[in-house]
Automatic annotation (TrEMBL):
Keywords: ATP-binding, Helicase, Hydrolase, Nucleotide-binding. This is Helicase C-terminal domain-containing protein. GO terms for molecular function: ATP binding; helicase activity; hydrolase activity. GO terms for biological process: maturation of 5.8S rRNA; RNA catabolic process. It comes from Diversispora epigaea.
Amino acid sequence: MQRDYLPVIIFSFGKRECGNLARQLKDIDVCTEKEKPLIQTVINNALQIINPDDRQLAQIEDMLPLLIRGIAVHHSGLLPILKEIVELLFQEGLIKVLFATETFSMGLNMPARTVVFSDVKKFDGQNIRYISAGEYIQMSGRAGRRSIDNKGIVILMAKQRMEPSVIKSMIFGESDYLQSAFHLKYHMILNMTRVEGLSPESILKKSFYQFQNSLNLPRLEEELRRLEKKYDSLIIPNQKLVAEYYDSRQLLDAYFREMRSIINHPFHILPFLKPGRLVRIKHANMDFGWGMVVRYGTKNNPEDTTIENPEEEEEEEKEKSSTQENKINNQINNKNNQINIEQLAPDDYFVDVLLYCDANSIVAKTADGITTGVRPCYDDTGEAMVVPVELSAIQSLSAIRIFSPKNFTFPQVRQTVYDSIQNLIEKFPNGLIPLDPIEDMAIKDESFLKLIRKIEILEDKTFFNPLHNSPYLPVLYNRYAKKVSLRNRIKQLKKKIKISQSILHLDELKYRKRVLHRIGYLTEDDIITLKGRVACEINVGDELVLTEMLLNGVFNDLSVEMTAALLSCFVFERKDNKQQNRVKEEFAVVFRRLQEIARNIAAISIECKIQIIEEEYLDSFCPDLMEIVYAWCQGQSFADVMKLADTYYEGQIIRILRNLDELLRALVSANKIIGNLELEKLFNLVIDKTRRGIPFVPSLYIQ
């Protein structure tokens, strides 16, 4: 307010966080006394269209005091009428501080003077990641109102240090490309099949999805010609000998990587990672050289830390670390304990190593727990740092251990230890003595010994190659490596061209048609049967399961309330797949009938080569809201229904009820084709009982 940054949109990546942030401004008022009556008038007029009881909903009572002070929340969990009130007030400039999720930046032309990102990371349903350049552009584009502001202000609130490259790619990166989300559905195939002169194949050819893939064809062909010309121009003397040497070296490198992964497995390496052990660290293309082990531990242990604690906490931390190491070592060394080696995942462990790094390096962690922000230093301007590294970064273990100080907090201590490492390296001009994996580390696994023998044979083969001691070998080797790279790129381009020239989804169309033939929706001549015509009318939910349920009499003996409850399984998709289906006893019988039909459809689909997993397919029919929809159909108030839906937002329940209404109308149309007047009457009764109250109030935009 003091800097005149209002109005401001504060983007947060969680519905709950939006509400929490807004409630923290309970003592702040950004509206003038002249604006308050205007806000109250808009609210009163808008709430006239809903029942008096619905005006007492908790979400409305929580929001109204915020709106009067010029503060609001906007996300998909809000009541539709509340979202529209917020949008109308924001357009009129009466809302000065808006906490919103990223949905507010999609499809709504509502700019502000300032945009604030409460975080630069979001959960995308699978992982926590930085927002993409496209997402940043979409949200930050709301900053600056045309003809009102001469500039827009964007504030990023990073909760931890970010790499410059990440910030650069976020702010200066390109917006996300428009990608077709086209996918085949049985409803689409059946409707295209019954239209004379139209086939699913022709629609596939003319789809935007196919167009996007074909659009790149001229560019791919031109690139292919260029690479083939470049490949033909690379002439290599004694190419056969060079190729033989190259193949041997590549295979040898692969064997060395395999050997390193075995040596670096926790079962083998952890007993030798005592403090003071010298190890060589290499990560990606960065070679840090030799360093000293400080300690090691597991990532998932909350007591483990990756940087040293202050001196006053040293003894406590040392005891914790020692306990953790002893626990791991006891598990590994106890022969009476039957260990499954595969359970010891290398990614679960870290090693703190004293390394010589660039002075500007700062130890940070990515969302995946990987160390970042550290770079090696190859001159005298660096600094010795304790860096947490993964086991895979250890390239060599030395047989030498040196004295390890108790505390690495002070730079002088770290530098002294690093200087002693350098003095040792100078005493061994031929390199530090490594630990022998067989003699010293006692790796006696038969597969490892076979790998060692393979390496020895290949090393002899490369040694006796005529080019081994040739001064021209580096040049020839690099030239041939470049030719191999070109050959691989040519293969990939040819594969992309073949895909672009073919009709995409054609195999899937063939498999789906095979399913329709098997269950009697299409004849052998691709003529639609009665079952197929019924499925054509159902454009919400799983058309095949619903059609089978209609024709197998699943709904014949159900009450109006139970019918609505069962149909809710088709319109609600749970986002948390880890949560198990919860079915109350009174709904279990009808839900099992649904599952039996779905299991039969899944089995036929798998036999017809459709790529589905039966359990995942069955889990897509979610019974979590059966009780809630049943109660709503019984006539309970929306407030009472929300008491049953304590883990869901009001906006989510309303969307489900509206989707259910759309499904019921489709089922009424389907039953007209069947000619079952009783079922048609049943679904109309369900519509009458569910289509009421605040979920179906008309939009304020059409009042």
